[in-house]
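Exercise: predict the fold of this chain.
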Amino acid sequence: MSKSEKSSSFWQGMFFGGLIGGIAGLLFAPQSGRETRKILKEKGQDLQENISEKSDKVVHQVVEYRDQLKSKMDESAGMLKEKYNEAKNVTQEKFEYIKDKSFELKEKLHSNKEETEETSEETSEETSEETIQEDVEE
């Protein structure tokens, strides 16, 4: 049972206990009608004050819980926003890193292709010259 439930049960018990005690006292009281009415009036005023005090406490607790909840929600929202921005920045950094590496790889492949073509042309020319020389020598 939570603290607020225990507190609520306690105050309910106090209220009903006081009410039952007051009724029992009136029923078994040896006073006259005038005195009983006076006592009833006093008890009614006490009860009214008691209810007013309790309702003020309840209102105060509700406001306090609301403020705590709002504070925690604001804090959680701030943390979520911060984590989102961190994740966004890391993702952007990784994206840029991959983009740069893919560009570098593309450049290397292009360079290797050109070197291969040049080497192929040189080899082809050398082979052609050797073939021509062999044909001429024969």
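Check your answer against the key: Helices lie at 3-27, 33-137.
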